[in-house]
Amino acid sequence: METLPRELATSIVSVPVQAIGELTGLDTAGSATVRTEFGEFPARKAASCLLEPRTGDRVLVCGPTLESAWIIAVLERREPGPTRLAFEGDAELAVTGGSLSLRAEQALGLESDTLRLRAREGVALIDCCHWIGRECTALVGRLRLTGNLLETFVDRLTRFAKESLRSVEGMDQVRSGVVDYQAEQTMSLRGRELLATAEELVKVDGGQIHLG
């Protein structure tokens, strides 16, 4: 490490310092080492310096003394790489009386253990959407789906409703290994023509059977 001459160190160690230097070392605790015209000395990242510095960056250092210096800002990157804004503890980004927009030309990612979204009204415009999850629970007052094609592939489908209405303009087909319809009161099948075809057996059982 470059050391200061004793006379120079004695004269500037207790005076305010403001200099531009190169970040030569940085540990996980936030302590750094900066090389300036005054020599190489330790410094800490200021709370206002949101851009996380990296080794080799040109930084602005200020402080009451060399022993209490702070990295105020990152002026220039030595090597290209991802830019990271770092906060310690809880953080809040607030906009009063205006709007906030987040834009990215390539990708925008959100990662957290818990994600909460709250708004009076929401609009999402996505050309292609893929959702992968273990479980999804939705509670809505009214749900409407409009589209050209709806495909559902599941191992088991269960639905419970007080009333159900389905209207199909064209053909409605059901293909299954076994079909079981059960009504507690009345089951009605109506049509201009009704066809029932079986390869082996047709059985009609009831207390009374009326044909014609």
The helicity comes to under 10%
Find the CATH superfamily of the domain at 15-76. Nucleic acid-binding proteins
The total beta strand count reads 5
| C-alpha Rg (nearest Å) | 36 Å
| Strand line-up across the major sheet | 1-2-3-5-4
Order of helices and strands: HEEEEE
CATH architecture of the domain at 15-76: Beta Barrel
Assigned CATH class of the domain at 15-76: Mainly Beta
CATH topology of the domain at 15-76: OB fold (Dihydrolipoamide Acetyltransferase, E2P)
Distance between the termini: 108 Å
Strand content: 15-25%
The main β sheet shows up as: 5 strands, mixed, barrel
Total DSSP helices: 1
Mean pLDDT: 87
The shape, in one word, is rod-shaped
Pfam families: DUF3540
InterPro entries: DUF3540
Which properties best describe this structure?
DUF3540; five-stranded mixed barrel; mainly beta; 5 strands; 1 helix; single chain; 212 residues; OB fold (Dihydrolipoamide Acetyltransferase, E2P)
Structure description:
With 212 residues, this protein is mostly beta strands. It has a domain at 15-76: Nucleic acid-binding proteins (OB fold (Dihydrolipoamide Acetyltransferase, E2P)), CATH 2.40.50. The chain contains one helix and five strands. It has a five-stranded mixed beta barrel with strand order 1-2-3-5-4.
Topology, please?
Elements: H1 6-12, E1 17-26, E2 31-36, E3 39-45, E4 58-65, E5 68-76
Parallel strand pairs: 3-5
Antiparallel strand pairs: 1-2, 1-4, 2-3, 4-5
Report a brief summary of the structure.
The chain is mainly beta and 212 residues long. It contains one helix and five strands; from the N terminus they run H-E-E-E-E-E. Helix content is 3%, strand content 19%.
